[in-house]
Amino acid sequence: MKGKRILIIGAMIIFAGIVALASIHFMSRQKPELLKKEKAEEILIKEEEPVKGPKVDKPKEAKPALQETPEAEAPAEQEAVLSARLRTEPSEVEIEVEEGGRKSSEFTLINDGPGKVLFNIYKVDKADTPAEIDQAVEQLIAYKKDKLPEKPAEEDLEKTGLFRGAPWLIQFPYYGILGPGETLDVKLAAVASNLEIGSNSTNLIILGLNKEEIAVVPVHVEVKAAPRIRFADIKVDDGVTPGTKGNLDNVAGPGEKVAFTVYLDNQGNGKAKGLTVTATADNASVTVLEGEAKLDFVEAKGRFNARFLIDVSDDAITTSPPSVTLTIKDSEGREWTENFYVGEPGKFDYPTGLISDEKKPEKVEEGL
To answer: Last residue of a domain, which of 207, 224, 241?
Structure first.
């Protein structure tokens, strides 16, 4: 009986051993798969968890540097397309102005390009041929890109015409922004005060940020000879000739009847024709008795005179001689005005007009 128990216990021990070995074998085969699964779960958790610690900025990607490409000579058709971004109507401006005068004109600037154009207008009067204009444009582009020194040399400024171009031509605006399809009227004024008779020309170069945004407008100003009437001198008669009365000091004063002759110069290069000269008093204390004179013509650089008669009231202000305005008109519609005191230069203390007693002559009988 005892031996039977021993056999049963031994069998149970052997069975348990077999089960244990089987379990160990099973676990040894499953462990690599479990490790892989745990590793994958660990990686997934780390990816989902936010990174703790100091923030580290990602390095910015460096932008590739812009490189200037050499400009190739474009065919004529391509140049026409590029230049069509900016154009003007009319393409040239012609102005006729009389010497010493001022005449206005204008042209329209049009942006045919797809984008906005930031432009400046320059005057270059030393560029007549296409090659000279192209050279001026290149210099202006270089100037705008700051390729010239911070303080350009005198010859550079003269070449670009930035400060020396055609001072007799005024344009407005000098710069601006023009959107796609937009237009702008550019006003011009030719001032012929210091211009010689004949032709004068300049070029307006309208330039954007590059050579594609450009328009060149030739401006031709023809200065014509014309008369220019200016006051030259005055002689005052206050008691010398019949019909006048006064104290003979050659200055109009209270209670006097004064004749005065005005000398006028035609300083222009053109003949003045059909002149009418009219005198009007500048204050109520003066009455103009004879106030108009006529003249058929005055040659260029010639002189003429006109005589007038005024009466000065007894209560006129004596701090200065009375003043008169002359209006001179010619048969072609020109008009000039001159304003002056009725007193000979040096005979009164201009500008106050005070007359010293030392300058007054002794009383002279009327009519002598």
So the answer is: 224
Range of the domain at 305: 229-359
Q: Examine residue 10 and state whether it is found in any structural domain, yes or no.
A: no
Same domain, 190 and 83: yes
Q: DSSP character for 354?
A: B
Phi-psi region of 112 (alpha: psi -120 to 50; beta: other; left: phi over 0): alpha
Q: Are residues 267 and 183 in the same domain?
A: no
> Would you say 207 and 144 are in contact if contact means Cβ atoms under 8 Å apart?
yes
- Give Cβ neighbours of residue 275 (< 8 Å, ≥ 6 apart): 229, 294, 295, 296, 297, 298, 304, 328, 329, 330, 331
Residue 349 included in any domain? yes
The span from the CA of 163 to the CA of 170, in Å, is 12
For residue 213, give every residue at least 6 positions away whose Cβ sits within 8 Å of its Cβ, in sequence order, or none. Answer: 85, 86, 113, 117, 119, 207
Rounded Cα distance, 28 and 165, in Å: 98
Q: Does residue 56 fall inside a structural domain?
A: no
- 246: nearest Cα among 137, 81, 365, 140: 365
Q: With contact defined as beta carbons under 8 Å apart, do 266 and 233 qualify?
A: no
Q: Note the pLDDT tens digit of each residue in 6-52.
A: 667 766 777 766 766 666 655 555 555 555 555 545 544 444 445 45
Amino acid 24 reads I
The answer to whether residues 190 and 171 touch, using CB atoms and an 8 Å cutoff, is: no
Quote the pTM value: 0.59
